[in-house]
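Re: that chain you flagged

S.,

Sorry for the slow reply, it's been a week of failed gels. I finally had a moment to sit down with the sequence you sent. For the record, here it is as I used it:
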Amino acid sequence: MQSIQLGNIDIEVVLKDIKNVHLSVYPPNGRVRIAAPMHLDMDTIRIYSISKLAWIKRQQAKLRKQKRETPRLFINRESHYFGGKRYMLKIVPTTGKHQIILKARSIEMHVHADTSIENRQKLMDEFYRIHLKAISATLIKKWQSILKVEVKTFGIKRMTTKWGTCNEKAGRIWLNLELAKKPVEYLEYVVLHEMVHLKERKHNERFVAYLDKHMPNWRHLKEELNRLGV
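Prediction finished late last night. Pasting the structure tokens below so you have them in one place:
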């Protein structure tokens, strides 16, 4: 792998069989990576990097400001989030089936006493996945009618740098599992954002016009969501 050094910023460069240059800044520390077409030379990529230096620094600054959760241990009285609200985790020992029950102020995790942290995490993730998929299905149905587009399939998965993605050709969108923890209006913004890509692939004026028309406060939602961090 090749790299470019711009001051104290190290940029990884990967040459691939693609048409356009893709610049990414990754959490948590702002690692920078450029994927470029194989025919481009390093001097051209360096010039491109310099032209994007201010943007790179802004993205790195945003990442450093983002709040990040401490690793969860899945023990009694630990705080967990669902739908934008904070709940206290209550571990309920059981010899029966593992399950999670949502209460008014707590999340009950019914597990065997010797269940590992890893398996408690999997149980919580599945709880998030089921609820997020149900809510997302309702939102997708709503926006399909408004936008006159069809989402042929959608899924939930853990992503480290994006809240959602859209494959326009396949009519498929993916949503970040972490959205289950956020307020539903943030989830709806991400759903709308990805579905607008079925009408306009690029983030151009036409794309922004759709968002402005259908969700006038989308910029505020985007800013707040990114402030919370992935």
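What I noticed first: The CA atoms of residues 164 and 190 lie 6 Å apart.

Talk soon,
D.
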